Amino acid sequence: MSEGTLYDKVWDRHKVTRLPTGQDQLFVGLHLVHEVTSPQAFGMLKERGQEVAFPERTHATVDHIVPTGNRDRPYRDEAAESMMAELESNVRGSGIDFSDPDSGDQGIVHVIGPEQGLTQPGMTIVCGDSHTSTHGAFGALAFGIGTSQIRDVLATGCVAMEKQKVRKIEVTGELGEGVTAKDIILTIIGKLGTDGGVGYVYEYAGEAIEDLGMEGRMSICNMSIEGGARAGYVNPDETTYEWLKETDAFADSPDEFERLKPYWESIRTDDDAEYDDVVTIDGSAIEPTVTWGTTPGQTAGITEPIPDPDDLPEEDRDTARRAQKHMRVEPGDTMEGYDIDVAFLGSCTNARLKDLREAAAFVEGREVDDDVRAMVVPGSQRVRDAAEAEGLDEVFTEAGFDWREPGCSMCLGMNDDQLEGDEASASSSNRNFVGRQGSKDGRTVLMSPIMVAAAAVTGEVTDVREMEEVATV
Amino acid sequence: MSSPEFSDGEAPAEKVTEVTGTGIPVRGNDIDTDQIIPARFMKVVTFDGLGQFSFFDQRFDDEDNEKDHPFNEEKYKGANVLVVNANFGCGSSREHAPQALMRWGIDAVVGESFAEIFAGNCLALGVPTVTADQADIEALQDYVEANPDAEIDIDVAEETVTYGDTVIDAEVHDAQRKALVEGVWDTTALMGANAGAVRETARSLPYVPDEDIPGDDA
């Protein structure tokens, strides 16, 4: 078993007791709540006559079903309206802070936590959402839970968990031009598989990770779950602290920052820590990477051929054959030139200010291809406002993108933002499962925000590095 | 026995030592929770009625005509043991997925491997997720296809799956087995009993202000 890792330390600090099942009872430092997975949990709580145990350690927002166009209440979609009303009633009745659309703080739960400083190193953070792993970027132990576990957390402030193994994933070297955090994580999942992380927590380390800003670290931790790891984290460092200083939690309380910093330092992985497994990946060899199939593990560098299913390990062949049929791709081809109908820049993986800035810098002076509908869905109202203050909205709209209100949007198609028929999308989101973006015949190609921007402009999957060369000529 | 019937909110922690019934195979690796229940069916505030949407997009085409899928086949009506392959239930944490399967009638899932959150969600419903080798699982799927009315017996405590003359040496994760066999899978009640120790842990954490910690047992 691992020893001396951040995971071990944070686990120990939050362990209340060993339960008769052999699981540990862990105190939850921050419980994030959204409208889709929480109503049944509040319902169960009420039926048991219980109240929320730690409302001050709980924070809610609305993201999955919220419209990204007209947001006048009641929402046009009655089901969405009833979910929103249910959430409002549940959180207001329990004294839980709610970043609702009128607050100016609403957004995707994994964007607002970090930007408000709710997310801090050394915390345990849970949410009824598998992408809760995002918050691990700050050196928190953060993972998704189911609705019955949400009930547990609401009622007791705790979760019952079994300790996992720790795999260190060291990404060495410097990233090449046009290569981003998204390409790192798609490469990792491609190498280790969608179930490679089952039973593990991932510690991301190495020069290529340390060089990333918080946004990039969040993109990587976000997709830990796509590799089967319920949680992933990066040890907190000066980059982390610089971000935290600017947040609501510490901007006006430098003393509080200094008071907590020793704790954050104390939970960093020790130099002589022991891991259950270590994997090293050469970051300098990573290309802009995209998916060719229907799982986030079916990836290829943009110049790499799509694999022949017969050359894959036996257990992957059947899935690969079905995926290639669905996506209409052929082994031996590269994904470069794959026609797209939709460009989606958004989601908890890639809809932060830095993502939008990078995509906008690429888009500026270019135009969206005539056959592509392109949209930008900022991760939060704060991201939207900051982007608008910099004029990014104009850059996007002038190029032909639709500039929308914050939410999960086309990542999972629970509002009106959906693929239609067999449309293909270039998407900065996290899942390319069949049907994920709202149409069961839809085809999703996952990629980084700048690769989405490039695909929007050319109408096909494009190696952004070649476009950038053209731009500088 | 089958898993207990309960509505949202009451989760009587019963002992789940054994599940017996007929099987239904759903083949394929990496079957994600978006396949088990598409997101559009999650625009609800209760889990009631989700059973009918299990594997919906695999079962129906755009005109709502039935497609080939085990969940549409008459011969599997009444089956309660789902037999799957590797990494079943990956992706979204939605408990709606096991809720839908349970409400369709599934009392236990046997497979090569399961995504963690999915397995945890099943446990919270008292539905065992039992694993066995690829060859054993495929043989069981073949058997169920040929013998849809034959009884399958899952012994959670002994970690076996029995059908015909075959006994599979299966595995039920330690904590899950203990929870099911001893009937302690209602973790809310279990953890609620430790409120004092919870407050103590909370007080020891530098980032939790005293005012966030409730004074007495609520």
In what range is the share of β-strand residues of chain B? 5-15%
**Count of distinct structural domains of chain B:** 2
Q: Which chain pair shows the most residues in contact? A: A-B, 87 and 72 residues
Q: Tell me the radius of gyration of chain A.
A: 21 Å
Layout of secondary structure:
The complex is a heterodimer of chains A (473) and B (218).
Chain A: H1 6-14, E1 15-18, E2 24-27, E3 30-33, H2 39-47, E4 58-61, H3 78-94, E5 97-99, H4 109-116, E6 124-127, E7 141-144, H5 147-156, E8 158-161, E9 165-172, H6 181-192, E10 200-205, H7 207-210, H8 214-222, E11 231-233, H9 238-245, H10 254-266, E12 277-282, E13 289-291, E14 299-301, H11 314-327, E15 342-345, H12 353-363, E16 373-376, H13 381-389, H14 392-399, E17 401-403, E18 424-427, E19 443-446, H15 449-458, H16 464-472
Parallel strand pairs in A: 3-4, 3-6, 4-5, 6-7, 9-10, 9-12, 10-11, 15-16, 15-18, 16-17, 18-19
Antiparallel strand pairs in A: 1-2, 2-8, 13-14
Chain B: E1 18-21, E2 23-25, H1 33-36, H2 56-59, E3 81-83, H3 96-104, E4 108-111, H4 116-124, E5 129-131, H5 134-146, E6 152-155, E7 160-163, E8 166-169, H6 174-182, H7 187-192, H8 195-204
Parallel strand pairs in B: 2-3, 3-4, 4-5
Antiparallel strand pairs in B: 1-6, 6-7, 7-8
Catalytic activity (chain A): (2R,3S)-3-isopropylmalate = (2S)-2-isopropylmalate
Keywords (chain A): 4Fe-4S, Amino-acid biosynthesis, Branched-chain amino acid biosynthesis, Iron, Iron-sulfur, Isomerase, Leucine biosynthesis, Lyase, Metal-binding
GO molecular function (chain A): 3-isopropylmalate dehydratase activity; 4 iron, 4 sulfur cluster binding; isomerase activity; metal ion binding
